[in-house]
Amino acid sequence: MFVSKLIKFLVLAGILSSQLLFASFAKATISASVSDAFSTLGDNIAQTWSSPAHYDLYVPAITWHARFDYDKEKTDKYNERPWGAGFGQSRWDDKGNWHGLYLMAFKDSFNKWEPIGGYGWEKTWRPLADDKFHLGLGYTVGATARDNWNYIPIPVVLPLASIGYGPATFQMTYIPGTYNNGNVYFAWMRFQF
């Protein structure tokens, strides 16, 4: 019970710090519609936090550096097996969409530990008569930290996509970047229990 509460606290702290950073920027430079979006985001995070929980186990599966945007000598040195694990709490809203809070740690491209925590949302479709099969598209917002950046927390906003059946979901994102930097496909399994 203590570990679960500690994980929730760490995830919430990461989310709130990145949300505060984004909110202060938004207030200074962006219109009221963005402020409304942050309010909705905050409401969704709070509701996911306090809802009766589904717990999720995250198992990183693959990291792939886009070969068209990297020198071969770089990709030959990179780790593309992101060993690690994570834990989360999620809910399905009344529209059938997925909301999740998570904390995950995995081996990054340099084979160093990288933590990431945040909130994810996916619009979910169930295209077959079988309600267990689902597809999702959405986003995640949170924070990460990397060894090569001295573990300074870095806010992240990334796209999400998924395909799943029942409690097992293959979820993925793409980290954009420049030549020899970023442009990474990252995917993991999420098991709901």
TrEMBL record:
The record marks Y179 as: Role in the phospholipid gating. It catalyses: a lipid IVA + a 1,2-diacyl-sn-glycero-3-phosphocholine = a lipid IVB + a 2-acyl-sn-glycero-3-phosphocholine; a lipid IIA + a 1,2-diacyl-sn-glycero-3-phosphocholine = a lipid IIB + a 2-acyl-sn-glycero-3-phosphocholine; a lipid A + a 1,2-diacyl-sn-glycero-3-phosphocholine = a hepta-acyl lipid A + a 2-acyl-sn-glycero-3-phosphocholine. The active site is at H65, D108, S109. The record marks K74 as: Role in lipopolysaccharide recognition. Its main location: membrane. It is found in: Cell outer membrane. GO terms for molecular function: acyltransferase activity. It comes from the Bacteria. It is an enzyme of class 2 (transferase). InterPro entries: LipidA_acyl_PagP, OMP/PagP_B-barrel. The keyword Transferase applies. The keyword Ligase does not apply. Its EC number is 2.3.1.251. Belongs to the lipid A palmitoyltransferase family. Homodimer. Transfers a fatty acid residue from the sn-1 position of a phospholipid to the N-linked hydroxyfatty acid chain on the proximal unit of lipid A or its precursors. This is Lipid A acyltransferase PagP. It comes from Scandinavium lactucae.
